[in-house]
Amino acid sequence: METDELNEDVLPMTNAFKLLCEDFTPKHNKKEVERQRQTARKIKNELENAKSDLKIEYKNLDFWTQHDIKHPLHHLQKAINATSSSVTDFKWVKPSKISIFDSRKLQIFVEIPSELFGNRDYLNLTYPAKRAHFLCFAAKILSGKFEKIEFVAGGINRDDPIFPDLFVDGVRVSFYTSELAKTKRFVPSIGNLRPATVFGENLFKGIENATPMFNQRMLWSLLEFELVQELEKQMKTHPTALLALHLLQSVLEHRHLNLVFSPIVLTARIVRLIKNGQITEKQEILTVLRVIFKDFISWSSDVEYLDVNDEQMEDDVEEEYSQHFDVNLIWRHLNIASRISKNQMARMKKELATCYPLLGQVYTFDPIFIDKSPVFAQYDHVARLQINVAQLQPLLGEFGCDSVDNRDVICQFLRSLEHRIEQTMSERYEFLGIHEILDPAHATWKLGEYASQQRQKTFLVGFRSTSAWKNPLTVGPSAQTNEAKEFRTLWKDTSELRKFADTRICECVVWNEKPSDKVPRAILQFVLQKMFHLPATCLSWRSLTSSSNSSEADRAHEKKSQEAVFQAFTDLSMLLRGLKGIPLMITNVHGVSGYIRGSEPAYPSVFAASATSSRDSGARHVVPEAGKIPLYSPAVTVHIKLEYSGKWGNDVEAIRRLTSSLYVKIAEKLRSEHKLCAVPTIDQLFVLKSGIVFKIVVVNDRILSILEEDVQKLKDSGASRIESSIQGMRLAMWKKKFIAEPLLQMSLQSFATSHKFFGSTVQLFKKWLGAKMLSGHLNDHIIELLVVAAISKRGAVEPQSTWSSFSRLLDLIATHPWSARPLFVDFGLKPWSEKERSKLEEKFVKMRPILPPMVVIHEEDHQGSKFTRENPSGIVLNRLVAVAKDALKLVEKQTIGEKAIDLETSLLTENLSPYDAVIHLEPTAVVRKKALLERRPIPENPKFHPKIPVVELDPVDELVYQLNNNFHAVAMFFYNKYGGHNIGVMFKPQEEEVPAKISRCSLHKSVSDTLLRLNRAEILENIQIMGEGVVADVELKKA
Amino acid sequence: MKITQMTRDLPIKKYIVHHFRDDYGSQVVDMSCCSKKRVKKVPKKKCEKVIHLDPDALRYLKFRIGGKYTTERHLFLKKDPSKEKSIIVSNIPSFIGEEVILAMIDQFAPFEVEESIVQRSNANDNSLSQGQLTMSITFEKPEAIIQVLALCQDIGPLTITDFLEEPEFPSVLKDSMSLYKRLFPSEEQIQEMADTYVERYDVEQAEARKEAKRKYSEPDEDGWITVTKKKKTVKSMKLSKEDVPLIGGLNGKKKKVDLAYYTFQIKKNKQEKAQELLKKFEEDRKRIAQLKQARNFKPM
User: Fold this and answer.
1) Which chain A residues contact residue B23 at CB under 8 A?
2) Which residues neighbour A959 within 8 Å (Cβ) at sequence distance 6 or greater?
3) B contacts of A663 (beta carbons < 8 Å)
4) Number of structural domains, chain A?
5) Domains of chain B by range and CATH?
6) Which residues form the Ribosomal RNA-processing protein 7 C-terminal domain (chain B) (predicted)?
7) pLDDT tens digits for A144-167?
8) The domain boundary residue, chosen from A337, A372, A407
9) Are residues A249 and A357 in the same domain?
């Protein structure tokens, strides 16, 4: 990624941003710091004055067991036996230097005297073994004098158990020696670790090879102290850079990149900028941050040096470095960035580039620097990879080189795997990430124990997919070329020749007939099984939906119906616009329905039920018959506007009547000219097109001006509270229904077009809300807005799949401080400026007491309460947050758990236990359940006249509405709109017992002269009476 | 057209059911299913009691629906403090109907009921056909009240179905189905409704115009003629050269006008500026504090 792509239209520094940043400065606990200092001094003192006359052979690792200490390299006894040294004895010698490094984190560096090492000890594991001996000596000296002494993994990323450090009461004690060998000895091409010494002669007899990774580990151990000193020297004089470092660390940590981009790498990169003169002491924090972000985003893959003025390496050495490492940041032959892979770089750059334009804004500070989202929500597709060293045995010849133990073998394998995946499917993803699933206490271990052997490791493999993710073909080079040969060998001769439309003939691997999620899975399996000979079970994909055929068919069905709706709507709108011979021409056709953008689950189907009514065969529509409830048929709402006319008059009712006669005219035309089934009613026109029922409504702006005039009149007459007057409310209603909602729908529609997975995420969200019995508690618009907010959250890379967007949605619901902040939704297009935003936030704070619990601000609603005024209530919002948290846990379990679960089914499981009473519904009244047979569009046949079926009639919806209407004072109702067979009832606890007053007596019965008790039986009986035909049974669960 | 969905969209329905029949493609229909019930004559029960009772106490009357619905329910009765001859009856299930309640009261009331009115419902949309109702019953004589209140608790439980000839209650399913049917009048009906209304409207408009005209030309009862002022036509505004930069900035340069003339003015201006900056800084600080507070906020 190049910096030219970054938006240079940047904000100036503001006080508010500065305050926010400064607030971020880590606060040191003075007491704690002082305690650590004392500990450090004590350690130094102890080590300097220690005496020990123990003398051992350095190969004797067992020795320490008698002192209750386990030599950290104990499991490598064989390898150490195979080493040699000119100094074979090892004893305690007073350290040549002990320095207390008192910077941000206190650390002690102990230099091991050079007399303990022979002149070729840098070879093989001699140095690590001796270093560990010294550690054991120190541990023995210190033990008993301090509360807690532990071994801790060392190395640049603090994860290397071969070069461990000591952890004494929270202070890290590192050991090094400075005069082991020249740094040049450790350039990548030199082999310092013979694989035969580690893994025996059988496999590696006489093999010598380069050990770039081992060399870097050695170098780190030798140079750590000097490097840290060098970095600190620069950072000390640049407090702003230090602050920026903290901020950057936080950014990367919250995006789960902190393990590879360790503090040392970040510091080194920033120090490089200081040395270059790009960061100066006087710069503001915002400038420094921008410089740093830009530098990280443009971090090149060339070999770069920490110190530009330093003597550079020769070209061929540079070449070696760039061959062995993806990223190179060199300081005295030590590659500080040796552990960073290409994919991690790509991901880091993508994340920072997303944040860069937002730097300096007060309201995006939190999303960039503070909000943390779970690791599985960062990727669009995830899989769990479990690797056992035993499985890698056959490949030891490859991965054993440059490895010391199992951990290294697995690391080498991963690197090779990443490389293979890149070779085989690089066009399908932007980057991938491999995260180890760790237990929290992996990095330290007690003196008397061994570091975990880690024969088996588990990883999360995540992909950020591109549009080519599901491609059924892997297209290779043109036939008959050398590349084609390579391609064939890579794919083990499974490729074949294919001729394309542009007459190219290419090598191709064919995975499937159609694009499918199965393709990348098959490729990865191919890589693991055919290239690494691993069992198929070691990788298991973790997804929302099960990969079974039935669920895939379901998804295909959903997609098909969405396409059908869209097509039918397009045809209809063309037809309407071209309609001639009606009094006023139709100028504007606007679809305002979730079905058009696929955000409404088509339960049971979007196609109209075929209408077979025996009675009054002349009618063009069907009415419900007593005792028979038809399955649900939806109607897609379409708003139309007519050309301007001055003849509408000044009376709303007159306009309504005129419009209704217009519906009759349009219906006649549609019937006579286009042979469509069209039925007008007073307020809308139903049309059946391609098997889908459309509900056409004329929107007349004249009504708006009449209503506005009415309000104006009222205002002129001196009325004060316009909002609560009838005129005011009518105007507000009209505006909401015919201006705000359609505009919002338009934004949603275009968002859905640019985000293909939007519809499926909303559908899943709706079904999930249903399964949690929360249908109806969130307005449909709010449901979609929440999904938009989760997808287009500022400061986060946009998700590309239902998996990631749904995970982020759950995260958003669970973590947004609903009562303290409004949620802003800007569709990612036209964000509010800082000023506008702060005004809106200020207004929110002022109005908080009268605003509803959930406030969602978007372009059509600056107050944020238009669609949340009535629902959800505080208690329901709390419940929503709680169930979202549960669902997140479930998703996490799905990603890292041992066995894959059918997540969708688990997410959509109903739980009736929390409710006081349950209303069981008649199975025939549940009209939104999945139909047994898939409905198809009614074939267009001139002989057969289809009818408009019963549309939008859901008795359960009606019942729930009336239940709320009747019992809102004493109970709450929870139901699943999408085929739920039960309604949950919660009685309001404050109504359980009330004082004997006529105003509170409804649905109570008298227990004494002063007390009334809730008459639950009466309520349930009322429900049965009003629900006759819909309610099968009512069950009181808790007395 | 979703029958209740649309009413759900219309929180103002409660205010406008009757005089606002829909601006928006959906018909708002009041579900008046509280139709008159045919009430059976049931012979009076004889009750006599010596009365000593707090006249303001909340009393109840036990009853049940009957048939398969056997739960004991309480009607609550209370003296209406504002009317001497009335009692308030509350917690009446709306599906029972006014007549049945009157018949029940009649069972033990020693005097005739003069008037009764359903006052309100506890339903969210205030519809009198839903929820629990409250009624006011006025007797012929004020003495009735104390007697009714005294006797009601000893009666019963009464059974509703005993009072009804056809014990049938409205249900959501039936209501919505019948409502659905009513939403589809025939095309001729629609046309006719439109024509009649528009005709009437045209006539009304014509009359109104005539009336207005008459006002201008003929003197009213007091001999006055209303005279109104003619509207002035608005002249188009021309921009002077100086105004242009203030609006869009054609040449981009603003003329700097220094209003301060005396040194003390300059000084004051400076101070004011500093004050303003300080104020802004304080505001920022407040804002940040708020943000921080929101960050630490734990909803659960």
Assistant:
1) 652, 656, 703, 707, 730, 733-734
2) A983, A1026, A1027, A1030, A1031, B172, B173
3) 190
4) 4
5) 1-30 (no CATH), 59-170 (3.30.70)
6) 182-300
7) 888 888 888 888 888 888 888 888
8) A372
9) yes
